[in-house]
Amino acid sequence: MEALKQKIRQDGIVLSEQVLKVDAFLNHQIDPALMQQIGHEFARRFAGQGISKIVTIEASGIAPAIMAGLELGVPVIFARKYQSLTLKDDLYIAKVFSFTKQTESTIAISAKHLSASDHVLVIDDFLANGHAAKALIDLIQQAGASIAGIGVVIEKSFQSGRAELDGLGYRVESLARISALTHGQVSFLE
Protein backbone atom coordinates (compact mmCIF):
# COMPACT_ATOMS: atom_id res chain seq x y z
CA MET A 1 0.00 0.00 0.00
CA GLU A 2 1.89 2.99 -1.30
CA ALA A 3 0.20 5.69 0.85
CA LEU A 4 1.22 3.80 4.00
CA LYS A 5 4.79 3.31 2.80
CA GLN A 6 5.02 7.02 2.00
CA LYS A 7 3.73 7.91 5.48
CA ILE A 8 6.30 5.59 7.05
CA ARG A 9 9.07 7.22 5.00
CA GLN A 10 7.83 10.70 5.87
CA ASP A 11 6.91 10.36 9.55
CA GLY A 12 8.33 7.06 10.79
CA ILE A 13 11.43 7.25 12.99
CA VAL A 14 13.93 4.39 13.05
CA LEU A 15 15.01 4.06 16.69
CA SER A 16 17.13 0.94 16.16
CA GLU A 17 17.52 -2.00 13.80
CA GLN A 18 14.50 -3.54 15.57
CA VAL A 19 12.23 -0.58 16.41
CA LEU A 20 10.25 1.76 14.15
CA LYS A 21 8.38 4.60 15.83
CA VAL A 22 5.10 5.49 14.07
CA ASP A 23 3.41 7.52 16.78
CA ALA A 24 2.80 10.42 14.38
CA PHE A 25 0.08 8.50 12.53
CA LEU A 26 -0.70 5.06 13.99
CA ASN A 27 -0.18 4.48 17.68
CA HIS A 28 -0.31 7.78 19.53
CA GLN A 29 -1.60 10.35 17.10
CA ILE A 30 -3.84 8.78 14.45
CA ASP A 31 -4.19 9.86 10.82
CA PRO A 32 -7.92 9.17 10.19
CA ALA A 33 -7.68 9.49 6.39
CA LEU A 34 -4.84 6.97 6.28
CA MET A 35 -6.74 4.64 8.66
CA GLN A 36 -9.74 4.85 6.32
CA GLN A 37 -7.54 3.80 3.39
CA ILE A 38 -6.07 0.98 5.49
CA GLY A 39 -9.55 -0.24 6.45
CA HIS A 40 -10.61 -0.17 2.81
CA GLU A 41 -7.53 -2.16 1.77
CA PHE A 42 -8.09 -4.83 4.44
CA ALA A 43 -11.75 -5.09 3.37
CA ARG A 44 -10.68 -5.48 -0.26
CA ARG A 45 -8.14 -8.19 0.56
CA PHE A 46 -10.54 -10.18 2.74
CA ALA A 47 -13.76 -9.58 0.75
CA GLY A 48 -16.01 -12.59 0.33
CA GLN A 49 -14.48 -14.50 3.25
CA GLY A 50 -17.64 -14.55 5.36
CA ILE A 51 -16.08 -12.54 8.16
CA SER A 52 -18.47 -11.97 11.06
CA LYS A 53 -16.13 -10.24 13.55
CA ILE A 54 -12.78 -8.47 13.66
CA VAL A 55 -10.51 -9.01 16.66
CA THR A 56 -7.59 -6.79 17.61
CA ILE A 57 -5.64 -5.86 20.74
CA GLU A 58 -5.72 -2.56 22.56
CA ALA A 59 -4.66 0.04 21.81
CA SER A 60 -2.80 0.49 18.53
CA GLY A 61 -4.81 -2.05 16.57
CA ILE A 62 -8.14 -0.38 17.30
CA ALA A 63 -8.07 2.39 14.67
CA PRO A 64 -7.27 0.17 11.65
CA ALA A 65 -9.63 -2.54 12.95
CA ILE A 66 -12.55 -0.11 13.29
CA MET A 67 -12.04 1.17 9.77
CA ALA A 68 -11.90 -2.40 8.41
CA GLY A 69 -15.02 -3.25 10.42
CA LEU A 70 -16.80 -0.23 8.99
CA GLU A 71 -15.87 -1.30 5.45
CA LEU A 72 -16.87 -4.94 6.04
CA GLY A 73 -19.97 -4.08 8.07
CA VAL A 74 -18.99 -6.22 11.06
CA PRO A 75 -18.39 -5.59 14.78
CA VAL A 76 -14.88 -5.07 16.13
CA ILE A 77 -13.74 -6.63 19.39
CA PHE A 78 -10.55 -5.52 21.04
CA ALA A 79 -8.78 -7.71 23.54
CA ARG A 80 -8.42 -5.66 26.66
CA LYS A 81 -5.45 -5.64 28.94
CA TYR A 82 -6.96 -7.46 31.87
CA GLN A 83 -7.27 -4.83 34.60
CA SER A 84 -10.87 -3.69 34.32
CA LEU A 85 -13.51 -3.95 37.02
CA THR A 86 -16.15 -4.32 34.30
CA LEU A 87 -14.38 -7.17 32.52
CA LYS A 88 -14.35 -10.02 35.00
CA ASP A 89 -16.77 -12.86 34.20
CA ASP A 90 -16.82 -15.45 31.41
CA LEU A 91 -13.58 -14.43 29.76
CA TYR A 92 -11.19 -15.86 27.24
CA ILE A 93 -7.72 -15.03 28.58
CA ALA A 94 -4.22 -15.20 27.07
CA LYS A 95 -0.74 -13.84 27.77
CA VAL A 96 1.19 -11.66 25.33
CA PHE A 97 4.76 -10.36 25.50
CA SER A 98 5.44 -6.87 24.13
CA PHE A 99 8.90 -6.48 22.63
CA THR A 100 8.77 -2.67 22.61
CA LYS A 101 7.51 -2.45 26.21
CA GLN A 102 9.48 -5.49 27.42
CA THR A 103 6.51 -6.63 29.49
CA GLU A 104 4.03 -9.47 29.53
CA SER A 105 0.34 -8.60 29.69
CA THR A 106 -2.78 -10.64 30.24
CA ILE A 107 -5.40 -9.91 27.60
CA ALA A 108 -9.06 -10.84 27.68
CA ILE A 109 -12.22 -10.93 25.58
CA SER A 110 -15.69 -11.42 27.04
CA ALA A 111 -17.24 -14.71 25.97
CA LYS A 112 -20.51 -12.91 25.23
CA HIS A 113 -18.91 -11.16 22.24
CA LEU A 114 -17.22 -14.11 20.51
CA SER A 115 -18.65 -17.56 19.79
CA ALA A 116 -18.03 -20.72 17.80
CA SER A 117 -20.25 -19.42 14.99
CA ASP A 118 -17.89 -16.49 14.30
CA HIS A 119 -15.44 -16.32 11.40
CA VAL A 120 -12.81 -13.83 12.54
CA LEU A 121 -10.35 -11.47 10.89
CA VAL A 122 -7.44 -10.54 13.16
CA ILE A 123 -6.08 -7.01 12.65
CA ASP A 124 -2.91 -5.69 14.29
CA ASP A 125 -0.67 -2.68 13.88
CA PHE A 126 2.66 -4.55 13.77
CA LEU A 127 3.87 -8.07 13.09
CA ALA A 128 7.35 -8.75 14.40
CA ASN A 129 7.76 -11.95 16.40
CA GLY A 130 4.09 -12.85 16.22
CA HIS A 131 3.40 -12.80 19.95
CA ALA A 132 0.31 -10.55 19.76
CA ALA A 133 -1.16 -12.42 16.79
CA LYS A 134 -0.65 -15.80 18.50
CA ALA A 135 -2.28 -14.51 21.72
CA LEU A 136 -5.30 -13.28 19.71
CA ILE A 137 -5.46 -16.62 17.88
CA ASP A 138 -5.47 -18.34 21.29
CA LEU A 139 -8.46 -16.23 22.42
CA ILE A 140 -10.34 -16.95 19.19
CA GLN A 141 -9.65 -20.69 19.48
CA GLN A 142 -10.89 -20.67 23.09
CA ALA A 143 -14.22 -19.42 21.70
CA GLY A 144 -14.22 -22.19 19.08
CA ALA A 145 -14.39 -19.57 16.31
CA SER A 146 -12.62 -19.91 12.97
CA ILE A 147 -9.99 -17.54 11.59
CA ALA A 148 -10.24 -16.01 8.11
CA GLY A 149 -6.78 -14.50 8.27
CA ILE A 150 -4.53 -11.92 9.83
CA GLY A 151 -4.29 -8.36 8.57
CA VAL A 152 -1.18 -6.43 9.56
CA VAL A 153 -0.55 -2.74 9.00
CA ILE A 154 3.27 -2.93 9.24
CA GLU A 155 5.27 -6.15 9.11
CA LYS A 156 8.91 -6.38 10.12
CA SER A 157 9.70 -9.17 7.66
CA PHE A 158 13.22 -9.57 9.02
CA GLN A 159 11.73 -11.01 12.23
CA SER A 160 10.13 -14.43 12.67
CA GLY A 161 6.43 -13.58 13.03
CA ARG A 162 5.27 -14.22 9.46
CA ALA A 163 7.19 -17.49 9.17
CA GLU A 164 5.61 -18.74 12.39
CA LEU A 165 2.08 -17.76 11.33
CA ASP A 166 2.60 -19.19 7.83
CA GLY A 167 3.87 -22.38 9.45
CA LEU A 168 0.65 -22.61 11.45
CA GLY A 169 -1.33 -22.31 8.21
CA TYR A 170 -2.72 -18.79 8.62
CA ARG A 171 -3.21 -16.35 5.78
CA VAL A 172 -1.26 -13.16 6.53
CA GLU A 173 -1.86 -9.94 4.61
CA SER A 174 0.54 -7.09 5.41
CA LEU A 175 0.08 -3.61 3.97
CA ALA A 176 3.74 -2.57 4.35
CA ARG A 177 6.51 -5.16 4.63
CA ILE A 178 9.81 -3.85 5.99
CA SER A 179 12.93 -5.76 5.04
CA ALA A 180 15.37 -3.75 7.18
CA LEU A 181 15.76 -0.80 9.54
CA THR A 182 19.34 0.32 9.04
CA HIS A 183 21.23 3.60 9.28
CA GLY A 184 18.01 5.42 10.20
CA GLN A 185 16.32 4.26 6.97
CA VAL A 186 13.41 1.96 6.25
CA SER A 187 13.74 -0.59 3.43
CA PHE A 188 10.59 -2.26 2.07
CA LEU A 189 9.95 -5.62 0.42
CA GLU A 190 7.99 -5.54 -2.86
Descriptive labels:
190 residues, alpha/beta, Rossmann fold, 8-stranded mixed β-sheet, two-stranded antiparallel sheet, 5 helices, 10 strands, 35% strand
What is the strand and helix layout of this fold?
Blueprint: H1 2-11, E1 13-14, E2 20-21, H2 32-45, E3 53-57, H3 62-72, E4 76-81, E5 91-98, E6 103-110, E7 119-127, H4 131-143, E8 146-156, H5 161-167, E9 172-182, E10 185-188
Parallel strand pairs: 3-4, 3-7, 7-8, 8-9
Antiparallel strand pairs: 1-2, 4-6, 5-6, 9-10
Helix pairs in contact: 2-3
What would you say this structure looks like, in words?
The protein has 190 residues and is an alpha/beta fold. It contains 5 helices and 10 strands; from the N terminus they run αββαβαββββαβαββ. It has an 8-stranded mixed sheet with strand order 5-6-4-3-7-8-9-10, sandwiched between helices. A two-stranded antiparallel sheet has the order 1-2. Helix 2 (32-45) packs across helix 3 (62-72).
CATH topology annotation: Rossmann fold
- Following the backbone from N to C, one meets helices and strands in this order, namely HEEHEHEEEEHEHEE
β-sheet strand percentage = 25-35%
* Rg value: 16 Å
The CATH class = Alpha Beta
Q: Main β-sheet: number of strands, strand sense, barrel status?
A: 8 strands, mixed
Mean pLDDT: 93
- Give the total of domains: 1
Structural class: alpha/beta
By CATH, the architecture is named 3-Layer(aba) Sandwich
- With strands numbered from the N-terminus, the spatial order across the biggest sheet is 5-6-4-3-7-8-9-10
Shape: globular
- The number of strands is 10
